[in-house]
Specification:
The structure holds two protein chains of two kinds. Chain A is mostly helical. Chain A has six helices and no strands. In chain A, helix 3 packs antiparallel against helix 6. Classes of the chains: A mainly alpha, B mainly alpha. Chains A and B meet through helix 1, helix 2, helix 3, helix 4 and helix 6 of A and helix 2, helix 3, helix 4, helix 5 and helix 7 of B.
């Protein structure tokens, strides 16, 4: 039988990953608390409503892609290099992009609905525009980072589950809020 | 240990693929774009609707958040840490379930070790968060006292850690009793419920402290 871990062992195993995620969260929080973001939140009704869904679903889209590609690598279903002719890899990337965009726009629509239910008023077009831009920027960054880290890591014998997961999650946390800020700025220029 | 086990909706997507196969009577090509979109979008949509609970709470506290940037700094950490702790607790319990050492009893040494570690991690993280959020919020023009920010972070963080422990234990135990593999469905569900509870507990404490 495998030796039992004490509370101290479990604590020590988990602490580094938790601390990295803490630092990423603090960075995201600092962007969220910045003067620019606060004025965006004040100006555009609905941003706070869509924030948790936006942060959570990015993990869902790209966490699942990482798990799928990770097991496909282990099973030899895909090769660790980017090949546009590889049907499985291409389809997985295209599907994740579609999922990310569809869900971003869906979140904007649901958030608008919740906003109206809560007796507020705002612009559906503005929220959809912000989520589409933020979702697009996230997709481009997450897909390129995820595939690069997964393949380079795999070629160097690193386990995709242990290394790639935390890197992707952390980058997602940090850049999600930054891209939201950029999207608010860009959409503000047009709408 | 994988930090984002809770973000992998793959197990649930596979269940959905099976359901589609049963309805249409045709085999599903797992690697077609259509299959990956049709199995993931409904789950992501359901997840987004669930997250509107936290979104509404944030929106209700908009004025408090805008005048106290320290609280805005705490929000992403609270959400992220809740999910991470839930994911760690559940994957360890699921492993013990597979090894056959899981037994829902207060004197089970594995359960004690896991619960103790989660509470310890919560105490460490939320002390650091309180200090950092106060300092960053101060620079961003906030006026909340150090004691207030630390109290909010620690009290809500520890309440959340206790919730994570109890809820993970009950969920893994329930899925075991019902015969489900906890890795597939339980972990993503627990992670997301913990995320939402993180926001609810945070603002319950904010209401009392401020």
């Amino acid at each position: 039988m495998i030796g039992r871990d004490s509370a101290r062992d479990v604590y020590r195993d988990a602490l580094p990953v938790i601390i990295v995620s803490l630092v990423a969260g603090l960075f995201a929080g600092t962007v969220l608390g910045s003067e620019t973001m606060r004025s965006g939140i004040e100006r555009i009704p609905g941003i706070l409503i869509l924030l948790p869904a936006f942060l959570a679903t990015r993990g869902g889209v790209y966490g699942s892609l990482r798990a799928r590609l990770g097991s496909a690598l282990h099973q030899g279903l895909i090769e660790p290099r980017f090949d546009v002719d590889d049907r499985r890899l291409r389809n997985a990337v295209v599907a994740s992009f579609i999922n990310g965009m569809v869900v971003s726009v869906f979140i904007a629509a649901v958030a608008f609905f919740v906003l109206v239910l809560r007796g507020g008023s705002g612009s559906l077009l503005q929220l959809v525009g912000i989520m589409a831009v933020a979702g697009f920027l996230s997709a481009i960054l997450m897909l390129s980072v995820l595939i690069s880290v997964l393949f380079i890591g795999y070629r160097h014998g690193l386990d995709p589950d242990n290394l790639v997961g935390p890197i992707v999650t952390t980058l997602g946390d940090v850049f999600g809020v930054v891209f939201l800020l950029v999207a608010i700025y860009l959409v503000g220029l047009i709408l | 240990m994988s930090i984002d086990a809770g973000e992998d909706l793959g197990g649930m997507a596979d269940d959905l693929a099976e359901a589609y196969e049963e309805i249409s009577g045709e085999p599903f090509d797992d690697w077609s774009v259509r299959a990956m979109v049709l199995t993931m979008v409904p789950l992501l949509a359901a997840l987004s609707i669930l997250q509107m609970i936290s979104g509404s709470v944030l929106d209700a506290y908009e004025d408090v958040l805008l005048t106290n940037p320290s609280l805005l700094v705490i929000v992403p950490v609270q959400i992220g840490t809740a999910g991470n702790l839930g994911s760690i607790m559940c994957s360890r319990l699921a492993t013990q379930l597979h090894l056959g050492t899981f037994e829902l009893r207060a004197d089970n040494p594995d359960i004690r070790a896991n619960s103790g570690a989660i509470l310890g991690l919560g105490a460490t993280v939320f002390t650091l968060v309180g200090i950092a959020a106060w300092a960053i919020g101060h620079v961003l023009g906030g006026t909340l006292s150090f004691a207030a920010v630390l109290t909010i972070s620690l009290v809500s963080g520890m309440a959340l850690s206790v919730f994570v422990v109890v809820f993970s234990l009950l969920s893994v135990y329930t899925s075991y009793r019902l015969g489900y593999n906890p890795d597939d469905t339980t972990i993503p569900v627990v992670t997301n419920v913990c995320d939402i509870m993180g926001v609810l507990i945070l603002f319950a404490v904010v209401t009392v402290v401020i």
